[in-house]
Amino acid sequence: MVAGIIFDMDGVIVDTEYIDFQILTQFICSLTNGSVELSEEEASLLVGSSYTRLHKTIKHLSGTNLDLSTVASQLEKFSQARYDSLDYLSVFRSDILFILDYAKQQGIKLAVASSSSNQHIREIIEACGIAHYFDVIVSGEDFEESKPNPAIYQATLKRLNLTPDKAVAIEDSAYGIQAAQSAGITVIGYLETRLPVDQSKADYIESDMVGILSRIKRLEEEGLN
Length: 225
Hints:
This protein is an alpha/beta fold.
């Protein structure tokens, strides 16, 4: 029985993971006053990471002498300048509505568990017109360690009043998949082919929301592992 569906946001609800990756590589270039060539392994560290981990990764990859708080503040300004002009509806995966409507019809609880800030999460789901669907919204900024630490998923389950065996997580990044699985949740990966993301640990992988909904229905029939 599936009693709850927990969505990551960036790269799942909205197709922003690739945009984020471009912004982050541009920011690293700005810190090095030129271009930077990242290996596939290094690039993968920028995808789906918590803010704290991300700031440390940027400092390492750029070799900057700036302290972490300065890296964080400069990244926020750099990113905001680019996101201010972004129309979130243009990157909204509207076929998620098939899942959201189905869940409401079936009495399945819905949540967002994202490493993004509370403000950023609210901003996006309200712009996409789906905020009213979610019973719980949890941000990684509320935890000392976000994904891949399972704390964000454990807290989400607690707020949904569900045990791990009654929930499904929809994730796209290696960190997110690891976090959900460490919390004991079955994970459906949203296929990402443009970025060097290891999704091999997901229990299932689907290429769109329609496929994810079909998988959820099968899990309801067959039972969660």
